[in-house]
Design a protein that fits this description.
Layout: E1 6-9, H1 15-26, E2 30-35, H2 40-53, E3 57-61, H3 67-77, E4 82-85, H4 100-128, E5 131-136, H5 149-168, E6 174-181, H6 187-190, H7 192-200, H8 204-211, H9 224-234, E7 246-249
Parallel strand pairs: 1-2, 1-4, 2-3, 4-5, 5-6, 6-7
This protein binds nicotinamide-adenine-dinucleotide (NAD).
């Protein structure tokens, strides 16, 4: 379905980004894996995807907190047909204690990076007359939770950016949409479990069900494969007229 297309997935040596990279490769796309690190494991991951799915796969290191590196990633990747803005971090603290540098970092990685990569990628997409931009926002792009001021702000910003880019590219056979996952069990979420167990004096199972999945009516995590599949759908011709919108993959969270 996607053979001949080149996809860049930011923040894809782990979790949802890796799941998306694998799904797009499964559909025949060549993929660029990215993170800020540059380890032999990162490059081995790309090589494994190339072998497993018989596509071209490369790892390109670029720090998504840095505007110039965001734009350099797109330039280095080449003719980018599909851009998935996925890199993201989390930090939880009351607003009065939220460190300014952490606020700036979350805004840069979770939101501004999507501005820089999109700005760089739309030029070539227009020239070639086809493009897909998929922003991995969050249920927190549509709703809020306490203590996540920077994350919620950044994700709402990503949803706004999605609509704006969609309007600016609407006549160019480029679509821009946001996927809003509920909780997906990745290292980002796994890292929150021990602290929450300690904070509430709960076992792991209770934390998962009553804290993490409290707002997820299905009481199940979404999977990286499901987010990958939703991304692949948005890249298919069935989605040619889907642009400027959000797709929730949240087990009913935003229906509450
Ligand atoms: P993760 O920690 O497994 O992956 C985050 C990825 O971002 C990693 O590949 C990491 O290397 C990369 N990254 C972090 N800082 C970076 C930087 N400065 N430059 C380049 N890459 C960087 O987390 P995840 O759960 O897979 O999250 C991926 C995206 O999905 C994030 O944007 C997150 O906000 C979003 N999301 C996650 C969930 C969830 O429940 N896991 C829910 C909704 C949205």
């Amino acid at each position: 379905m996607l053979s001949g297309k080149l996809a860049v997935i930011t923040g894809s040596n782990s979790g949802i980004g890796l799941g998306i990279a694998k799904e797009l490769a499964k559909q025949g796309a060549d993929v660029v894996i990215n993170s800020f690190s540059d380890t032999p494991e990162d490059h081995a991951m790309a090589e494994k995807i190339a072998t497993d799915f018989n596509v071209n796969a490369r790892y390109i290191a670029a720090d998504m907190s840095d505007a110039a590196q965001c734009r350099a990633l797109i330039a280095q990747a080449g003719a980018v047909d599909i851009l998935v803005n996925n890199a993201g971090i989390q930090y939880v603290a009351p607003i009065e204690d939220f460190p300014t540098e952490t606020w700036d970092r979350i805004i840069a990685i979770n939101m501004s990076s999507a501005f820089h990569t999109s700005a760089a990628a739309v030029v070539g997409m227009r020239e070639r007359g086809w493009g897909r931009i998929v922003n991995i926002a969050s249920a927190h792009g549509l709703t809020a939770s306490p203590y996540k001021s920077a994350y919620v702000t950044a994700k709402h910003g990503v949803v706004g950016l999605t609509k704006t880019v969609a309007l600016e590219t609407a006549e160019d056979a480029i679509t821009c949409n946001a996927i809003c996952p509920g909780y997906v069990l990745t290292p980002l979420v796994e890292a929150q479990i021990p602290d929450t167990m300690e904070q509430y004096g709960m076992d792991r199972e209770t934390v998962v069900r009553d804290v993490l999945l409290q707002r997820q009516p299905s009481k199940q995590f979404a999977t990286t494969e499901q987010i990958g599949g939703t991304t692949a759908f948005l890249c298919s011709s069935a989605a040619d007229q889907i642009t400027g919108t959000t797709i929730s993959v949240d087990g009913g969270w935003t229906a509450l």
